[in-house]
Amino acid sequence: MTAALSGVDLGIAQAVITTLATMLTIGIAFLVKPGRPTLYWSFAFALAMVATYGVVAGDVTGMETLRRASLGALMGSPALLWSGFRAEWSMRSHVWAGPVLAVGAALALGLAGDLVWFTPAYRTVFFVASVFAALFVIDWARRGSAARADRLLLPLAIVSIAFFVTGTATFIAGFVFRPSGGDDFALVRLISSAGMLVYVACALIAVVGTTARDSGLGRATTVSTAWQQFERTASERLLRAERSSEPWSVVFLEFDDAADIRQSAGAPAFVRLSERLEATVRDVFPAESDVGSPSAGAVVALVPRAEAAVRDLLRTTLERITELDVDGALPIRPTASAGWAPTSVLGFDLDTLVYTGREAARLASSKGGDRWERVSATIVERLISRSELP
Question: Coiled-coil ranges per the record (predicted)?
Fold first, then answer.
């Protein structure tokens, strides 16, 4: 009776975590970064959730066939997770493996007769499911040292190894040792159920964490906070400069073809490229300049220099940007366009300087890119005519 209750309790815990995993995977992973990897991961957790509901319902109502078939369907989830990671790593996904294993295992366990046939069937499908966990570890190890050092994937890799070892030991033990009754199999079920809880939790961390990081969700908060700090500091400096009438300028730099770079090289590469853009600007511009990034692929610099010096800084910066690359992952040479907004033309309001500088940068990009454009009457007229449109 105690073992049965423990099984139901574990089943309820599995239902809770698989439901949470499905909601988070669809809401954070798939909707934020739709694609084959997040789609396969969503299917994996949805399958685990539905199968777990079936196991719990079978335990509570005494419908043994439903419980056994649901246990079998649950075994297809590790294969779908593996397919998702292979798709993420630009490898052939073999997505058919998950549905085939789920259907085959559900039929095998659902149609098995008494415990004499069900026990070896369960040990076999559990072992097959663990093989896909091992395949994930193999593919993960083949990705190189960078992937092996990924803290989000490391817990899943460790628990996948434990999954495979447990599945192999369980499979071999079923043939080496004679079964002593139902107690030994009940222990196997408890161990596998508890292990599945840990496995789903680690898979959730890997899937949602990786997607959030690669899509820039975590970086967005950091960028926003840093940009707010830049705005406060720059506004205060411009206010002081206005009293002394010193020459200041705002330079707005933005990647040409940013959308194409992000799509072809991937979000992680674009984030790293954006960080290198900001580092380049900080390196070229004087130390007393303020530098901030309002969004990925764009950098703003507040420069306390005369206009002749700003021209030289712009020329040097644009040349340095063409030399940027991220581990050779970019399909095209990165270039940027710059908009130059001097206080001698527009005054000392930061928002005005940034806004007109951005418009000048986009005008430079429309003219072919890899160049700079100084804010002039033409830029102002473009902004005015745009604001007058209905």
Answer: none
